[in-house]
Amino acid sequence: MSTAFSLAPLFRHSVGFDRFNDLFESALRNESGSSYPPYNVEKHGDDSYRIVIAVAGFQEDDLDLQVERGVLTVSGGKRERSDESITFLHQGIAQRAFKLSFRLADHIEVRNAGLQNGLLNIDLVRIVPEEAKAKRIPINGQRAALEN
C-alpha cells in the first residue's frame, strides 16, 4: 500500500508554485537519512535564521560548507592525525564523516559561519530585492471612466 498522494489538485488555481509540489513530495517521502550529527534550525527574527550543528571533535579544517543552486551542503570528515602517543581506552565521541543538505528558500543567503565549543553556527538572512517585494496595484477603472 502506497502512502504517496498527489498534490496536483491543490495547484490548479495557482501560478508559479510548481516548485512547491516537488518540495512537498520530497518532504513527505520518508528518507532514510541519518540523524547524525544532530542540528537545530532557529528563527531569530523575521528575516534572520541560524542552523546549529553539533560537531564535537571536529576542527574548522575538517568541515566544508557549500551553497549551490539553493542548497546548503555541510560535510565533515575527520582527517587522520598522526599522533602515536595517544591510545584510546574508550572513544565515545563520534567523529565519522557526515553530509547534511538544507534547501534554502528564495532570497535566503548565508551570512557567516563559526565554530565554537563544538557547535557550528551558520547564520542565514532573507534579503528580498525591491522588484520581488509586494507592491500595491492601483485600480484606475473609475478614474479612466470619469476622464472619457
Short description:
Keywords: Stress response. By secondary structure, the chain is mainly β.
Describe the structure.
- The protein contains two helices and seven strands; from the N terminus they run αβββββββα.
- By secondary structure, the protein is mainly beta.
- It has helices at 18-28, 141-147; strands spanning 39-43, 48-54, 63-68, 71-76, 98-103, 108-116, 119-126.
- 12% of the residues lie in helices and 32% in strands.
- It starts with 17 loop residues before the first helix and ends with a helix.
- It has a domain at 38-80 and 93-131: Immunoglobulin-like (Sandwich), CATH 2.60.40.790.
- The strands form two sheets. A four-stranded antiparallel sheet has the order 1-2-7-6, with no helix packed on it. It has a three-stranded antiparallel sheet with strand order 3-4-5, with no helix packed on it.
Return the CATH architecture of the domain at 38-80 and 93-131: Sandwich
Helix-strand pattern = HEEEEEEEH
Largest sheet: 4 strands, antiparallel
Unreliably modeled segments: 12-16
Kindly report the CATH topology of the domain at 38-80 and 93-131: Immunoglobulin-like
Roughly how many Å apart are the termini?
Answer: 65 Å
Structural class: mainly beta
Average pLDDT figure: 78
Global outline: elongated
Order of strands across the main sheet? 1-2-7-6
Give the beta-strand count: 7
CATH class of the domain at 38-80 and 93-131: Mainly Beta
CA radius of gyration: 23 Å
Report the portion of residues in β strands.
25-35%
Helix share, percent = 10-25%
Number of helices: 2
InterPro entries: A-crystallin/Hsp20_dom, ACD_IbpA/B, HSP20-like_chaperone
Keywords: Stress response
Domain SHSP: 30-142
Pfam families: HSP20
